[in-house]
Amino acid sequence: MRRCREKRQVALYVRFLYCVGNDQFQKRLVCGLRTNDVIGQKKSHCSLPSGAVPVGVQMHPEIIGRKYKGADARIRKNTFWIFGGKDEASQSLIQGMTLSGVMFDEVALMPRSFVEQALARCSVEGSKFWFNCNPSNPAHWFYNEWIKKADSKRALYLHFSMEENPSLSKEMLQRYENMYSGAFYERFVKGRWVAADGLIYPMFGDSCMADCPQQCSGYYISCDYGTVNPTSMGLWGESGGVLYRTHEYYYSSKRSGAQKTDEEYYAELEKLADGRRINAVICDPSAASFIATIRKHGRFKVIPAKNDVLDGIRRVSDCLKSGRIKFAADATIRCVSFLFIAGTRGGKGLPEKGKRPCDG
């Protein structure tokens, strides 16, 4: 059973299970993004909120005799289809269902097509919907279509902040207060739908600069490859649990007026390594030709980077605040400007294309 650690989830499950205890012979959909499951004999390409039904059984001890068949659960003669909603393909697997209600756990992470398909399946008279989520950017479709229109849709909107989390002590709450800042703090601590405008890494400052150790336990090279956009490669040394950016290579074809070939970039990669034993080169996964060139030479192990921009920003922010990333004070860091450039792209809180870290 998954521990229900957030007040918004407690409120969601209590209200949802109130209907469970008062209805019979109804079919509902329970949707989430927690663990893998199947629907019928087909892979759902998504996942369910593990523990949603077990939590209900614990909160309603009088509800007994539940049993599971494939991806459905039966409680007091009600049928619950346990389903996910990870991608656009998910909505095709619930077409044709007739439901009396649907519960969405973390609805802001689900594609709009899936959510609206599930809502359209609720054709039984008196059917109800339940949602919960962490905030995203204010251009998000769910914020505009449901939260801002809660009154017209006859929906009850409840706002919670991290301070209302019943499982967190005062010490842990203070820790989170000190750990995060910017849009991540506003969204996940204060529960506000805010845009990620302004500084991407406002915590960057002199405390992030340091003298690098003479010897490191391991070395890595990060590579942001570009043809029209600039190419940036950074040498990172690991020592005492801290990653130090010691040297870098930067080239902008816009400024120089000439593009370089993959072989020329590989030669610069060799120079940056300067005879050191490199554990891995972490490279932009879209740079397929450059990755192939590195592998052809056989010297470096290549690991494709994860291209989740927002998750990457959160991870870097955490490392900067905790001191796990440092920049060499005596190095010429051409791309340190990425710490200050911000904006939004497509209403999704992403850095603008024209204001990428190394553009210009």
List the helices and strands and how they pair.
Layout: H1 7-20, E1 27-31, E2 35-39, E3 42-48, H2 52-59, E4 67-69, E5 72-75, E6 78-83, E7 101-105, H3 112-120, E8 128-132, H4 141-147, H5 170-179, H6 182-188, E9 209-210, E10 218-224, E11 231-239, E12 242-251, H7 253-256, H8 262-273, E13 278-283, H9 288-297, E14 302-304, H10 309-322, E15 325-328
Parallel strand pairs: 1-6, 1-7, 7-8, 9-15, 10-13, 12-15, 13-14
Antiparallel strand pairs: 2-3, 4-5, 5-6, 10-11, 11-12
Helix pairs in contact: 8-9
Low-confidence regions: 1-5, 34-72, 332-346
Strand content: 15-25%
Q: Which structural class fits the helix and strand makeup?
A: alpha/beta
What does the main sheet amount to?
Answer: 7 strands, mixed
Overall morphology: elongated
Q: Helix and strand string, N-terminal first?
A: HEEEHEEEEHEHHHEEEEHHEHEHE
Q: How many strands in all?
A: 15
Calculate the mean pLDDT score and round it: 75
Biggest sheet, strands in spatial order?
A: 9-15-12-11-10-13-14
